Amino acid sequence: xxxxxxxxxxxxxxxxxxxxxxxxxxxxxxxxxxxxxxxxxxxxxxxxxxxxxxxxxxxxxxxxxxxxxxxxxxxxxxxxxxxxxxxxxxxxxxxxxxxxxxxxxxxxxxxxxxxxxxxxxxxxxxxxxxxxxxxxxxxxxxxxxxxxxxxxxxxxxxxxxxxxxxxxxxxxxxxxxxxxxxxxxxxxxxxxxxxxxxxxxxxxxxxxxxxxxxxxxxxxxxxxxxxxxxxxxxxxxxxxxxxxxxxxxxxxxxxxxxxxxxxxxxxxxxxxxxxxxxxxxxxxxxxxxxxxxxxxxxxxxxxxxxxxxxxxxxxxxxxxxxxxxx
Length: 326
Ligand code: CO
Ligand code: ZN
Description:
The protein is an alpha+beta fold and 326 residues long. Helices cover 27% and strands 29% of the residues. The strands form 3 sheets. It has an 8-stranded mixed beta sheet, sandwiched between helices. Helix 1 (2-9) crosses helix 5 (162-177), helix 5 (162-177) crosses helix 9 (310-324) and helix 7 crosses helix 9. The protein is globular, with a radius of gyration of 20 Å.
């Protein structure tokens, strides 16, 4: 799965511009399902048909990443932008960024600024004038901090964007490995999660699942200054109880715990006090459904250097497969 993850992490996929990663995932998942299609918003839906009258299980991982849209180029050739999703400018300044067409630059902060923000940061691609920059970049182009992945000792990985390509990789791998399911299974690779869970909303409306499970990252509480939460890196798959946008179905939470125990997958219960996932939009789509979330513990989420633990990834995969197999 590591090679698959590396492939899935490479393409730039700012919210609303998910085409290139979708192509990679489509090719990877196609052999393991009955049909694959893309809907009006760009969600990729891989469907493995269940028996007559079986319940619908929708699994969702988002393809988009936080990033930027070019708004303007100034006289000095500096590029100004708007953000897509929750950018932490304190950690993003002085990073290398890459545009859709492969142009590279650095996102820097105004020297006078005591704190970094959308207003004080800009991108320098080395152009001397507006017209020189305009040959490489135009309004509406997207960019993000360059993707990267490195192995650290102890089975840990650092890089970006693990949010949520690791969830995408887990779904593809689960589709590959899962045995016969009692459900009609929809593996959905969603768009525009980082700007408000938009893709999963329309996909869930169209599918009308009985059960919906998001596979996405969560924060951890195990570093200096981290938010107060019980989740630890290396503590196993996160089983979400609630976050700011959703309260998961307690019966589904219990079922996840049962499945994790039965399969020997290490797990931990998760309450995230800041942030949300596709779980919320799937739960509230149409007449609603039973919704939950399998969370990959991630340190330094939404920074250029997110950190995950390979043991946790395998626990999340095992739990996901367990939920598919019922
Ligand atoms: Co995110
Ligand atoms: Zn996410």
